[in-house]
Amino acid sequence: MTLAIAQVQHQPVSLDEFIARYGGDNRYELIDGEVFDLEPTGQHEEVAALITAKICVQIDQLGLPWFVLQRGLFRPSSASMTAFRPDVMVVDRTEVAKESLWQEQSIITRGDSIKFVAEVVSSNWQNDYARKVEDYAALGIPEYWIADYLGLGGIRHIGKPKQPTLSICTLVDGEYEINLFRGNDAIVSTTTHIINLWTNLLTLGKVKN
User: Fold this and answer.
1) Which pTM was predicted?
2) 2, 6, 69, 92: least buried by Cβ within 10 Å?
């Protein structure tokens, strides 16, 4: 998730301290010991909600044992001072049962529990296109979407001229293969099988191609 982010404090914070202070508040994320107030905009939340709605329909139609954990906390067990709050996170009920913290807190620690993650890009896009691509791949998350509906990402990520782009990262042999979708492109997704979503995202972003 990258938004109009405000750093809360400069002193490193441990995972235990973060969970104790901010674990129940969806506004905060921890990256390498730094706490950030995510301050989501209304338009950003609208895009995340649309992705969630479309995915829920597909999960229901396909009869999958999955559900959307929106704004849940993802605290990778392999990362000592990081806890992400993906905009949209699809988890597997059968795997969630193995999570040690799940019964008491909405916290996921195992990559195996996650089937799909989406991040909606706003003003600060670097983590979505770099850090999270590496981390989510290393954790074995099968599919990761970067919904850059305003075309804010760097040229090396979305090309030139910059334009609204949906990057679908699909895990292959431990690394993401990234496919870019723009304009009237039909989305191809191995996990969600969503059709015509990108057109809806562009409409929400009030972007004309």
Assistant:
1) 0.84
2) 6
